[in-house]
Specification:
single chain, 6 helices, 27% helix
Length: 201
């Protein structure tokens, strides 16, 4: 039994990346990514050690979300994203993960640009929501630049909380307390995206 509509097929092209539905054949590449060492990003490390692990992870996601693979122009799988809590055509919630070697290369920005076009265009959603760690300064700045609005914040348990002692950046540390990390809920509406999109180079 599933609580989500069937995922449409797609093949999206950007300047730097291509996006299509995530498939089982993509998972060995995700499993081969080196782990994130930044305490902020360790929660994105997956422990997919065997084909059984891969199948279990993907099957779990397929129950309640639409997962997508992000590949660069050389064909390397650089990240994945997903939609969950889908209530078409009103809204859904986005999650985005980039592999450790691929952060800071513009892949996330390009992926968001082409996926938002698809999301508000062909898929016909009216609003997108997402949650982002307050300490993830890079992602929060990107989302604001793309037109997302902060709705509020909440605290949730931080994975690998013992590693936060190594973080010296006060701007990031203000979003961490006693084993918890501050999260921000953000949203973007279709009319805002269309305005922002027309101004993007």
């Amino acid at each position: 039994m599933t609580d989500r509509p069937p995922q449409p097929d797609c093949f999206l092209f950007g300047r730097l990346v291509q996006i299509r539905p995530l498939r089982y054949a993509d998972l060995p590449e995700i499993a081969a990514w080196p782990p994130h060492t930044d305490p902020l990003l360790k929660a994105y490390n997956l422990h997919l050690n065997t084909p059984a692990d891969w199948r279990h992870w993907l099957n779990g996601r397929l129950k309640d979300r639409w997962p997508y693979a992000i590949r660069n122009r050389d064909g390397l799988l650089v990240g994945h994203l997903s939609l969950r809590q889908m209530d078409p055509p009103r809204s859904s919630r986005l999650g985005v993960v980039l592999g450790a070697p691929y952060i800071g290369r513009g892949y996330g920005t390009d992926a968001m640009r082409i996926f938002l076009d698809y999301y508000f265009g062909e898929l016909g959603f009216g609003m997108m929501r997402l949650d982002v760690s307050g300490a993830n300064i890079r992602a929060r700045l990107l989302y604001r630049r793309l037109g997302f609005n902060e709705l509020g914040s909440f605290w949730q348990p931080a994975l690998d909380a013992e590693d936060w002692g190594s973080v010296k950046d006060e701007e990031r540390l203000q979003h961490f307390r006693q084993g918890q990390v501050r999260m921000y809920e953000m949203s973007l509406r279709a009319p805002v995206w269309r305005r922002v999109r027309s101004a993007l180079a």
